[in-house]
TrEMBL record:
UniProt keyword list: Heme, Iron, Metal-binding
Name of the protein this chain belongs to: Eosinophil peroxidase
One Gene Ontology molecular-function label: metal ion binding
Gene Ontology biological process terms in this record: response to oxidative stress
One cellular component term from this protein's GO annotations in UniProt: extracellular space
InterPro entries xrefs: Haem_peroxidase_animal (IPR019791), Haem_peroxidase_sf (IPR010255), Haem_peroxidase_sf_animal (IPR037120)
Annotated source species: Mastacembelus armatus
Chain sites annotated for binding heme b: 378
Domain of life according to the entry: Eukaryota
Length: 644
């Protein structure tokens, strides 16, 4: 995608692209949503196509389905096979609070009042509270920008909310990118008088998230939104969440069970991802680097596994590598990412040690997590994408880039030195520090998608509008939900936020703490000791990550998923090692999520603190045909092999 070729709203749609199965469900749900006939419900579901979408999947209980996750996440939970699967509605921890029946979003009618006051325009909140000049930022003293990127990477493993399949008003056919009138699915963001953009632009386009089919039956139908990918941390951003995409991403002629690679370009002698199927665009340089890295890691793993087990079929190699990749993502996230985000003490309090699989726990993503809580890291993103050459030096072939020039710029990877410069930049740059006066950089509030032409969007305003679109209750309700004190006045809010100026701004904008949009309220709380988020975000994030662990039948620590020796080896997994093994980078930090100030503080890839993942416990004796009569070991490998 070249710069200057597309409208920003098209690019936002690209950010949220989904594949065939999701589109079918959205179209069915939108048809249902726009049908006012309250007659025969069964018939209505049938005609719209929703009844097929609501059917319960049938689960197999053979060796393969006990051994490997399904691609769609279905049947992870045996009694509720849709839990955590792709294309199911987000769960709700608090009931939605829409403006009116049929899921009219909050703030649809600017005059509508909540607790006797109307909601401020989201763009005004962004201007008043979030806006931060690119050069007015503080750096995180202990965390690297790779940690920030890791957050976005696993976000893409857990959350993808499709927007409406239509970009024009259902009623009038007006183009959502040009209209300033609220007419579903268009929910444009109004530009306030005080805005420098006033006069240039009267509204920023916004499309409502698509409704889901599975949200109750008339007349009690409640609008719910859909998660298009598996909620489990299972590396679904590498493998896909639908069988058709998973198949398209594989190299079917490989005897090793490899993933498909780009046949036209390579990174010196290393591989790139293939050109993706339409709609699978990856959105910025950091993400492209991680996608490429883990694609290579899969192909490296299958090669090693093949050397250990030459008798394994391509499917077994693919599945075993996929299983290891899932474990790597779980380990890096729970052991290395979350403690740094939540802080060690909040982490051990809110996510106590693993005690085994609990089939009663719903691992589906909660609406509030997707729409507000896990967007917390938008305020820790640096405005500049650093790119560094060998030895971590700046290089004129690939200079640092303003963030907006790194969006939709996969051509830069191919033409400007491969993924190594981007990864080196992420390893050596610190994260941005969130402070009450320095929230979201102007690259994100003023220039989102600007380089690609058209009117720039504002990520802060999008986050707030999305919360209203999804009917998220306000700040106070979530404080109450988490058992935290509920502020009743500006001074009580000032105590919680530890900042009177900010509390006063909120008072002027919202009138009451109850109405504060959750995302902006939550990111305004000061961080707990050792962490980067306040009490409300800690509660919401920990609750989700705990459910993703305890409710996952294939959690890496669960007895029987791996052997104890395999677990021990996996436990020492190192992201720096993965970088060493799959790039031309030769010096790396021992802890890549911690801030490294100088290249001299890094270690050679051969250093013992950058341990190899020893796969020897995956070696299995090739007992050939005789195995049929043998008793199967705790892992049941052989039985599955014979199914291939
Ligand atoms: C370069 C950095 C980033 C950019 C440009 C970016 C951009 C975006 C955009 C445009 C959206 C869609 C907004 C909407 O219409 O509702 C979004 C959603 C989201 N972002 Fe980011 N983001 C970045 C980094 C991150 C990070 C570091 C995290 C988390 C740690 C994160 C978490 C999320 C989540 C959870 C969503 C909701 C996704 C969905 O519901 O489909 N983002 N981001
Ligand atoms: Ca997933």
């Amino acid at each position: 995608m070249s710069e200057g070729a597309l409208r920003s709203s098209d690019l936002l749609a690209q950010f949220k692209q989904t594949e065939a199965r999701t589109r079918t469900q959205i179209q069915a749900a939108e048809l249902l949503d726009n049908t006012v006939d309250e007659g025969d419900v069964g018939n209505l579901l049938q005609v719209t196509g929703c009844s097929a979408e609501l059917r319960k999947p049938i689960c197999q209980s053979d060796c393969l389905s006990n051994r490997y996750r399904s691609i769609t996440g279905e049947c992870n939970n045996r009694s509720d096979p849709r839990w955590g699967a792709a294309n199911i509605p987000y769960s709700r921890w608090l009931p939605p609070e829409y403006e009116a029946v049929w899921g009219i979003p909050r703030g649809w009618d600017p005059e509508h009042t909540y607790h006797n006051v109307s909601l401020p325009p989201v763009r005004l909140v962004s201007q008043e509270v979030l806006f931060t000049h690119n050069d007015n930022i503080s750096l995180d003293s202990t965390l690297s920008h790779l940690l920030v990127e890791w957050g976005q990477w696993i976000d893409h493993d857990m959350v993808l909310t499709p927007q409406s399949s239509s970009t024009v008003s259902f009623r009038t056919g007006a183009d959502c990118t040009h209209t300033c009138s609220r007419d579903a699915p268009c929910f444009p963001i109004q530009i306030p008088l005080s805005d420098p953009r006033y006069g240039v632009q009267s509204c920023m386009p916004f499309f409502r998230s698509a409704p889901s089919c599975g949200a109750g039956i008339l007349p009690h139908r409640q609008r719910e939104q859909l998660n298009a990918i598996t909620s489990f941390v299972d590396a679904s951003m590498v493998y896909g969440s639908s069988t058709s995409l998973a198949s398209a991403l594989r190299n079917h002629s490989s005897p090793l069970g490899s993933m498909a690679l780009n046949s036209q370009h390579s990174d010196h002698d290393l591989a790139y991802m293939p050109f993706l199927p339409p709609g699978e665009a990856i959105n910025h340089l950091g993400m492209i680097a991680l996608h490429t890295l883990f694609l290579r890691e899969h192909n490296r793993l299958v090669k090693e596994l093949h050397l250990l087990n030459p008798h394994w079929s391509p499917d077994t190699l693919y599945q075993e590598a996929r299983k290891i990749m899932g474990a790597i993502h779980q380990i890096l996230t729970w052991e290395q990412y979350l403690p740094r985000v939540l802080g060690e003490s909040a982490m051990s309090l809110l996510i106590p040690p693993y005690e085994g699989y609990d089939p009663e726990v719903d691992p589906s993503i909660a609406n509030v997590f997707a729409t507000a809580a896990f967007r917390f890291a938008h305020v820790t993103v640096q405005p500049l994408v650093a790119r560094l050459g060998p030895g971590y030096t700046t290089n004129s072939q690939h200079p640092h880039l303003p963030l907006h020039h790194s969006l939709f710029a996969s051509w830069r990877v191919v033409q400007e030195g491969g993924i190594d410069p981007v990864l080196r930049g992420l390893l050596l740059s610190p994260a941005k520090l969130q402070t009450p006066g320095q929230m979201m950089v102007e690259e994100l509030t003023e220039r989102l998608f600007q380089a690609q032409g058209g009117m720039p969007l504002d990520l802060g305003a999008l986050n707030l509008q999305r919360g209203r679109d999804h009917g998220l209750p306000g700040y106070s309700s979530w404080r109450r939900f988490c058992g935290l004190s509920v502020p009743n006045s500006t001074s009580e809010l000032a105590v919680i936020l530890g900042n009177f100026t900010l509390a006063h701004k909120f008072q002027l904008l919202y009138g009451t703490p109850q109405n504060i949009d959750l995302w902006v309220g939550a990111i305004s709380e000061p961080a707990l000791p050792g962490g980067r988020v306040g009490p409300l975000l800690s509660c919401l994030l920990a609750r989700q990550f705990r459910a993703l662990r305890d409710g996952d039948r294939f959690w890496w620590e669960r007895e029987g998923v791996f052997t104890s020796t395999q677990r021990r080896h996996l436990h020492s997994v190192s992201l720096s090692r993965i970088i060493c093994d799959n790039t031309h980078i030769t010096i790396v930090p021992a802890n890549p999520f911690s801030r490294t100030e100088r290249p001299e503080d890094m270690l050679a890839c051969s250093h013992p603190l950058i341990p190899h993942l020893d796969l020897s416990p995956w070696k299995e004796p090739d007992t050939g045909e005789e195995v049929r009569t043998e008793k199967y070991g705790e892992r049941g490998y052989q039985l599955c092999l014979f199914l291939h």
